[in-house]
């Protein structure tokens, strides 16, 4: 039984795609660790998965 299931997670900032189709499944009672180099998207992955990234408003062109 899946506790969390993520399919094709994608995140873009200012038209630059920073996450490209992340798939992740965590079962109930399972513990995982996400490791990687600085700036590789670990925090953005979890913030997006938890729904904590807010859409940014675009400023109108001058």
Automatic annotation (TrEMBL):
Q: Which UniProt keywords apply?
A: ATP-binding, Cell membrane, Membrane, Nucleotide-binding, Transport
Where located? Membrane
Report the Pfam families cross-referenced here.
Answer: ABC_tran
Q: Which InterPro entries match?
A: ABC_Ni/Peptide_Import, ABC_transporter-like_ATP-bd, P-loop_NTPase
**GO molecular function of the protein, one example?**
ATP binding
Protein family: Belongs to the ABC transporter superfamily.
PANTHER family, alphabetically? DIPEPTIDE TRANSPORT ATP-BINDING PROTEIN DPPD (PTHR43297:SF2), OLIGOPEPTIDE TRANSPORT ATP-BINDING PROTEIN APPD (PTHR43297)
Q: State the protein's name.
A: ATP-binding cassette domain-containing protein
Taxonomic source organism: Paracoccus cavernae
Q: What is the lineage of its organism?
A: Bacteria, Pseudomonadati, Pseudomonadota, Alphaproteobacteria, Rhodobacterales
């Amino acid at each position: 039984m899946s506790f969390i299931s993520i399919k094709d997670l994608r995140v873009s900032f200012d038209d630059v795609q920073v996450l490209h189709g992340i798939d992740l499944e965590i079962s109930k009672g399972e513990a995982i660790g996400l490791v990687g180099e600085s700036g590789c998207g670990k925090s953005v992955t979890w913030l997006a998965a938890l729904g904590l990234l807010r859409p940014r408003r675009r400023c109108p062109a001058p």
